[in-house]
């Protein structure tokens, strides 16, 4: 085993750290020398109510293990207040794990505007607000590690989770851009796609699976992603049950819908004829950035010009 990965001198804010996955992240950071802000609103899994107990219990656990932690009871929607707790108590912020979350599962037909807005407020806006509040500190110190929490429900869709899926995929988009904007200041932003036994998944996952999906098995992945030695930036990492992998969005080779550069239109009928080529994923590739996407398009146009 290599040298222990330590976080001495680092300050980590973990949102929604009063239970489930966030609690495991906070405990692991705490035992590795980080000073931890345990943020948790302490409401129900559907986002009702509030209580200081959830955060307090985890702070006590970290202290009992010899670590340093303070509680923060703000909603992530008040991101500035959450980050202020780190600054007031510890004078800096190095790591932000955007983890707080709730569920309001309904089919698309039954999703109310309130359910939609609340899910987006906690997951997407909450992550934006905390990240934006941490940003000036991270930029100034030329260092930061940020995690966004997505979900397979966002990546693949899941019946009854339209609001949650949309917010969770929104977090992938947010991470893509934060990773690009942070790069020059050594601020990395990566995405965790977890599956774990928690109050959120109780009764949804089959018992056999539920018992294997210990949230503590995901914590080492998130904690490593937040270490200064981890060079990943803009990665999506799926993890569950002591297994982890990188996830990519890929693009097919595609098909030109014009026969020559002079042809300025195409037709639905032609699209239908070549549809199997448009949707052929045989030579699908992952693109690293938006320039590669437009670069490839320019190549297609160049070939068309040359009659290739
Ligand atoms: P959990 O319910 O055990 O923990 C979530 C915590 O967030 C709770 O302690 C809750 O009080 C807190 N919270 C909720 N709203 C908050 C707010 N506005 N401000 C601050 N804290 C708030 O759930 P979990 O399973 O540990 O989920 C953690 C994250 O992982 C969530 O973002 C969830 O969507 C995501 N996720 C979980 C799974 C899974 O299988 N458990 C799968 C995919 C994604």
TrEMBL record:
Transmembrane segments: none annotated. This is Peroxisomal multifunctional enzyme type 2. One of its GO terms (biological process) is fatty acid beta-oxidation. It comes from the Eukaryota. Pathway: Lipid metabolism; fatty acid beta-oxidation. Keywords: Fatty acid metabolism, Isomerase, Lipid metabolism, Lyase, Oxidoreductase, Peroxisome. The lineage of its organism: Eukaryota, Metazoa, Ecdysozoa, Arthropoda, Hexapoda. One of its GO terms (molecular function) is oxidoreductase activity. Signal peptide: none annotated. The chain holds residues 1 to 308 of 595 of the full protein. Coiled coil: none annotated. It is found in: Peroxisome. Residues 10-203 form the Ketoreductase domain. GO terms for cellular component: peroxisome. The gene is DHB4. Belongs to the short-chain dehydrogenases/reductases (SDR) family.
